[in-house]
Design a protein that fits this description.
Low-confidence stretches: 151-155
Largest sheet: 7 strands, antiparallel
Strand content: 25-35%
CATH superfamily: Aminohydrolase, N-terminal nucleophile (Ntn) domain
Order of helices and strands: EHEEHEEEHHHEEEEEEE
Strand order of the largest sheet: 3-2-4-1-10-9-11
Number of strands: 13
Number of domains: 1
Radius of gyration: 16 Å
Structural class: alpha+beta
Shape: globular
CATH topology: Glutamine Phosphoribosylpyrophosphate, subunit 1, domain 1
Length: 244
């Protein structure tokens, strides 16, 4: 049911130095996620996005990116189509939408049909999905709450509190593991299936987040159910436990 990959570091690193090649095999070869792949990365302070509604394990384009991209912030996804079970570019993660004078990237593992239906009924003018997935509707649902709060917020803790509350509410109505980024932070929420591996390299601290451990399983740590972790420049800056 889809898999996530995230990376944050202090300085840009070649994607080929990350376990992205193994992650790519989970897009239809070593795992049943053949319905699309996507990768978004920060380059010159702006998001770059490439994706296809085809198996990542067979994509020469995905393989090329792994050997050419250098970045300090990456979010990638391989898809198992469920809601809807349709392979289109618009239904392929990650998604990018604007909010609060930032461009946000998002990828999701799980199913949240109730939240998607509720968000679709609202006809949210601020964030309209390009595709039909419950994931993108849930993304818009998160941003709609952040937007309303940003207009009144003065402390960073306030919007993080809102994000953790809404994440838990969505998780309580489905399955909601996700990666989210505003172009600076890597935000990871582990509802029931997410892992991280941190590097304490003083010159270039980094973290990799993945649905399943890649490579040496013993070097990875599982998220606690409902754990929200935030990284900036590869350094953990906040951890919030939610209850759903």
């Amino acid at each position: 049911m889809c898999e996530l990959f995230g990376f944050s570091s202090k300085h840009p690193l070649a994607a080929s130095a990350l376990p992205l090649a193994e992650f790519r095999t989970h897009g239809g070869a070593l795992a049943d996620n053949p319905d699309g792949w996507g990768m978004v990365w920060r380059e010159r302070e702006a998001w770059q996005l490439e994706k296809e509604p085809f198996p990542g394990s067979h994509s020469a384009r995905f393989e090329r990116l792994i050997h050419t991209v250098q970045s300090d912030l990456i979010v990638a996804h391989v898809r198992k189509a469920n809601l809807p079970p349709v392979n289109t570019l618009g239904n392929t993660h990650p998604f990018i939408h604007g909010c609060c004078e930032r461009q946000w990237a998002f990828a999701h593992n799980g199913m949240v049909p109730e939240v998607a239906a509720a968000e679709a009924a609202l006809c949210n003018a601020m964030c309209r999905p390009d595709g039909q997935t419950d994931s993108e509707f849930a993304f818009c649902h998160l941003l709609s709450h952040l937007a309303g709060h940003y207009r009144a917020a003065e402390a960073e803790d306030d919007w993080l509190g809102i994000l953790s509350q809404i994440s838990a509410q969505i998780a309580a109505r489905g399955k909601f593991n996700f990666l989210l980024s505003d172009g600076q932070l890597l935000i990871a929420y582990g509802h029931d299936r997410l892992h991280y591996r941190e590097s304490a390299n003083a010159a270039n601290p980094s973290v990799v987040v993945s649905t399943e451990p890649l490579g040496d399983a013993a070097s990875w740590t599982a998220f606690a159910p409902g754990e929200l972790r935030l990284y900036q420049g590869g350094v953990p800056v906040r951890q919030i436990m939610t209850v759903f």
